[in-house]
Structures are given as structure tokens and as C-alpha cells.
Design a protein that fits this description.
alpha/beta, Aspartate Aminotransferase, domain 2, Aspartate Aminotransferase, domain 1, 2 domains, four-stranded antiparallel sheet, 13 helices, 36% helix, binds pyridoxal-5'-phosphate
Length: 391
């Protein structure tokens, strides 16, 4: 791989352009192609068995996966990165790396719902106990520590409710007890936050969102500090988690332009939020990048920017009015996932047991894409008109 890609003195916008590149090794082509390989041939018995070649079998990686791993390790300052077929498998892999039978996991109440389901239900079959904790607990999370606590899952800002967690405080408390801190960093991406630098041991990215950025592939990644790298690699290998060549290629291609896409998404989100604040239909805005947000101070301290995903608590309205508003939107798509070029909107129903979301009206999750913000505003304004007419 290119020497420049490993130079940590560059800014992260430069790193996303240069990391994992090798034009000389690929006929001068700018991008590393998708290596679709299961079998990798070796010249001799010695080469096959004794030489410890860099690439041995497709499931164990190819130049395409190595390039993406190098990219994320450079951005996160990680010892190792592994790729998985989805963001959810990255979450389950990180937890399986950190936990063992009889161990306890503290999981933020604001975790991505499928991660929570894995922790509370599936992991339970293997003797792991998951206990949800208040995302705003900070160092107070130590009150929940027992001799069996092995890991803490942080997701900041949280899914649907966007609480910012005090990761350095949580990690400080955990480190004193040898507890592994796992951070799901999907909202921020490695460009806006680097949790390993804030004390986390492993960081998860659902690359499906901003990294791929075009709504056409699922991919996950886990990056680890030196303490956890070997165990992460071994767990990944023994679980047989291999990401497809074309999906990794799309992620590598997507991340090259992620800095400009994120900036445009943030700018769009801020324009929409400024307008929403003038509207009686809008109640609470859940966006740590906004000064009015309770997590704003922590966000300023730990993040370099905000992405384009936020929550919108509406003033009370009937189900019929909400459907009239959403069903008729021209530009906002209704669908799961986020972080693509197209704006998305969905009604959100956070499942919480420690810190319930209490809004007087329905909660929406909005992912701002790359359209003209004024067109998005006009689309929402027409939606509010339809809601009023249906009420
Ligand atoms: C979407 C998401 C995931 C899962 O990613 P998939 O590729 O859909 O499996 C994990 N964590 C967070 C925070 C997410 O938003």
C-alpha cells in the first residue's frame, strides 16, 4: 500500500483521499478494483504452507478489503480493522469479542434496536447478561459495575433520541476496572469523531450509512486499539464474517467523497432546523450540533462536526394527519437506513427502559441528503399543510 496513506501527520480529509491506494500495483488505475476471489493460488508447497503469504484465501481478505481496513485504521488511529457484511454484524462481532459466558454487558438505553435485541435476547442464550443504562450517566455508570462486568456499549449520539454520551468519563471509569468500551460511531463517521482517541477500546461503523453513501450496499467495520486487535481478528476469523468484494469496493469509493457529502448534509440539516424552529408544527429538535440541544457542550468538546441525521418531535397530531403529511412528500423517501444522497424521513418509536422518550407529539427521524435545502423546506411545508387539512 502507499506509504503516504500511513502518514498520520495528514488531516483526515487528506487521509480519505490517499489511504489504501496503490496505482502502481494496479496498472496505474486510480482505484483498487474489487478482487472477487475465494481461491488464491500459490506457486509451491512452501509458498502455500510456510511463507505466510499476505493473502491466502478470499474469506481471510484480499487487496480490496486490506485497502478499506487500512483506510479505517488510519482514520481511527486503530491497530486493526476488520470488515463485516453489515453494520449489525459489526456490532455483534465487537460484543462477542469483548464478552464471554457469565459476563455482563452494560448497554446504553439509546442503542440501535437490533444491537439491543442481540444483547438482551440472543447473547442471553450464551450466558451473557445485558443491562441497559442511562445514556446520560457519564462516570456514574460505574455504579452498575459488578465483578462480572466485561463490556460497555456506547452509542453517541444515540439512535432516534440523539443523546450525546460522555465517552471520556465512561471510558475512564471502565479502564480502572479493565472493562472493554465499545463505541458505535455510525452517526459521526471517523471524520467527525474518533472514539479510540476518547478512550474506547473498539469502534464500530455501519459503513452502510455515510461511508457507502449511495444506499446500495450493507457493510460494517470494527476497529480496535492494540489491546484488543488480536482478539478482534481471531473472533472475526472464527465467526467466518467476510464482506463481499463489491460492497467493500463501493465503501472504498464512497469514503473518498465523504468529507464533502457530510459537509453538505450538515449544512442542509442546519438550514432545515433553522426553518423548523419558526414553525408551530415543530416541537423538539434532537440534534447535538444545535445550540439548543442538551448534548451540545459535549458534542462541541468531542466532535468535529455534525452529520445530517436528526430527530424532530412534532406538536401533537393525529395518525391521519401524520400519514397525510408523510405520504405526500415528493423529495423525502420513506425507508430505513440513512446517510445516502437522498433525503429520508420515517416516524420513530424509541424502545427505552431507563430513559423513555417523552414527547407530546409523534417523533420523526430525518436524514438530510444532498438536494437543495430550499426544495426540502418547500416539501415539508406542503406536508404540514396537508397535515393541517387532514386534522
Ligand atoms: C444502521 C445502523 C447499524 C446497522 O447497520 P446495517 O448495515 O443496517 O446492519 C448499526 N448501528 C447504527 C447506529 C446504525 O444506525
Amino acid at each position: 500500500m502507499s506509504k503516504a496513506g500511513k502518514d498520520t501527520s495528514y488531516g483526515s480529509r487528506t487521509t480519505v483521499v490517499i489511504a489504501g491506494r496503490d496505482p502502481k500495483g494496479h496498472a496505474g488505475a486510480v482505484n483498487i478494483p474489487p478482487y472477487r476471489a475465494s481461491t488464491i493460488l500459490h506457486d509451491s508447497v512452501r509458498a502455500l504452507t510456510a511463507d505466510k503469504p499476505r493473502f491466502t484465501y478470499g474469506r481471510r481478505g484480499t487487496p480490496t478489503t486490506a485497502a478499506m481496513e487500512e483506510m479505517l485504521s488510519s482514520l481511527h488511529g486503530a491497530e486493526a480493522t476488520v470488515l463485516t457484511p453489515s453494520g449489525l454484524s459489526a456490532c455483534t462481532l465487537a460484543l462477542l469479542t469483548a464478552l464471554e459466558a457469565g459476563g455482563e454487558l452494560l448497554i446504553t438505553d439509546s442503542a440501535y434496536e437490533p444491537t439491543r435485541h442481540f444483547a438482551m435476547k440472543l447473547a442471553k442464550r450464551f450466558g451473557i447478561t445485558a443491562i441497559p443504562y442511562d445514556p446520560l450517566a457519564g462516570a456514574e455508570v460505574a455504579r452498575l459495575f459488578t465483578p462480572r462486568t466485561r463490556a460497555i456499549l456506547v452509542e453517541s449520539p444515540g439512535s432516534l433520541t440523539f443523546e450525546v454520551q460522555d465517552l471520556p468519563a465512561i471510558a475512564g471509569a471502565a479502564r480502572a476496572q479493565g472493562i472493554c468500551v465499545v463505541a458505535d460511531n455510525t452517526w459521526a463517521t471517523p471524520l467527525l469523531c474518533q472514539p479510540l482517541g476518547l478512550g474506547a477500546d473498539m469502534v464500530i461503523e455501519s459503513c452502510t450509512k455515510y461511508v457507502v453513501g449511495h444506499s446500495d450496499a450493507n457493510l460494517g467495520a470494527v476497529s480496535a486499539s492494540a489491546d484488543w486487535a488480536e482478539r478482534l481478528r481471531a473472533t472475526h476469523y472464527h465467526l467466518g464474517l467476510t464482506a463481499g468484494a463489491d460492497d467493500v469496493y463501493l465503501a472504498l469509493r464512497g469514503i473518498r467523497t465523504m468529507a464533502v457529502r457530510l459537509k453538505a448534509a450538515e449544512e442542509g440539516a442546519r438550514t432545515l432546523i433553522a426553518w423548523l424552529k419558526t414553525r408551530p408544527e415543530a416541537g423538539r429538535i434532537l440534534y447535538p450540533g444545535d445550540e439548543s440541544d442538551p448534548g451540545h457542550a459535549l458534542w462541541r468538546r468531542d466532535f468535529r462536526g455534525a452529520s445530517g441525521l436528526f430527530g424532530l418531535g412534532l406538536a401533537p397530531m393525529s395518525k391521519e394527519a401524520l400519514s397525510a403529511m408523510l405520504d405526500g412528500l415528493a423529495l423525502f423517501g420513506m425507508g430505513y437506513s440513512w446517510g445516502g444522497y437522498e433525503s429520508l424521513i420515517i416516524p420513530a418509536d424509541p424502545h427505552r427502559s431507563v430513559r423513555p422518550y417523552a414527547g407530546p407529539g409523534p417523533l420523526l427521524r430525518i436524514s438530510v441528503g444532498l438536494e437543495d435545502p430550499q426544495d426540502l423546506i418547500a416539501d415539508l411545508a406542503a406536508g404540514f399543510d396537508r397535515a393541517r387539512a387532514a386534522a
